[in-house]
From TrEMBL:
Function of the molecule: Controls the rotational direction of flagella during chemotaxis.
Classification lineage: Bacteria, Pseudomonadati, Pseudomonadota, Gammaproteobacteria, Enterobacterales
Subcellular location: Cell inner membrane; Cell membrane
This protein's name: Flagellar protein FliL
Key words, A-Z: Cell inner membrane, Cell membrane, Cell projection, Chemotaxis, Cilium, Flagellar rotation, Flagellum, Membrane, Transmembrane, Transmembrane helix
InterPro entries, A to Z: FliL
Protein family per UniProt: Belongs to the FliL family.
Domain of life: Bacteria
GO biological process: bacterial-type flagellum-dependent swarming motility; chemotaxis
Record flagged with keyword Repeat: no
Gene Ontology CC terms, in alphabetical order: bacterial-type flagellum basal body; plasma membrane
Transmembrane segments: 15-35
Membrane topology reported for the UniProt record: Single-pass membrane protein
Length: 159
C-alpha cells in the first residue's frame, strides 16, 4: 500500500506547484496591466509642465543706417530689422508710448557700429547686448527701468 500512496502524493504536489505558478503568473500579469494603466495618468499629472507664459514681442520697423568706418566710406550700410522680447504687456505699452525715444536710441547706437565687427557672429551678439543695455535705461527720468528680455534679428544685411 505504501507504493500506491507515494505516487498519488507526487501527483498532488505537482498539481499544487503548477497551480501556484499559474496563480502567481496571473497575479503578476494583472498587477503589471493595472500599473501600466495607472502609469500614464500619473505620469501626465507629475510631468505636465506649467504653462509657459505667452511671449510678448514688439516688432520694430527696419533701420537703414550708414556705419562708421575709418575710411569714411558712405557705402557701408546696415539694414536691420529687430523684434524685442518683453516680459509683460505693461512694458510693451510703455515702449510703444515712448517709441520715438526707443528708435532714436537705437539709431544712435547703430550708426556707431563698425562694419568689420558686425560681419561675424561675435559682433552680432555684442550688438544684441548693447541694444539691451541701451533699452534697459529708463525712458523718462524718475521712471523704473524697462526690461528687454531678448533682441531678435528679423533682417540683417550688411553692405
Amino acid at each position: 500500500m505504501s507504493q500506491n500512496v507515494l505516487p498519488t502524493a507526487r501527483k498532488q504536489s505537482k498539481w499544487l506547484v503548477a497551480l501556484v505558478i499559474i496563480a502567481l503568473a496571473a497575479g503578476g500579469a494583472a498587477g503589471y496591466l493595472w500599473w501600466q494603466h495607472k502609469l500614464p495618468g500619473q505620469m501626465a499629472k507629475q510631468t505636465a509642465p506649467a504653462e509657459a507664459p505667452i511671449p510678448i514681442f514688439m516688432p520694430l520697423d527696419t533701420f537703414t543706417v550708414n556705419l562708421a568706418n575709418p575710411a569714411n566710406d558712405p557705402d557701408r550700410v546696415l539694414y536691420i530689422g529687430l523684434t524685442l522680447r518683453l516680459p509683460d504687456e505693461a512694458t510693451r505699452k510703455e515702449m510703444m508710448d515712448f517709441l520715438p525715444t526707443v528708435r532714436s536710441r537705437l539709431l544712435l547706437l547703430l550708426t556707431r557700429q563698425d562694419a568689420g565687427a558686425l560681419a561675424n557672429d561675435q559682433g552680432k551678439l555684442q550688438l544684441v547686448e548693447q541694444i539691451k543695455l541701451i533699452l534697459n535705461e529708463p525712458l523718462v527720468t524718475g521712471q523704473p527701468r524697462p526690461v528687454v528680455n531678448d533682441v531678435l534679428f528679423t533682417a540683417f544685411i550688411l553692405r
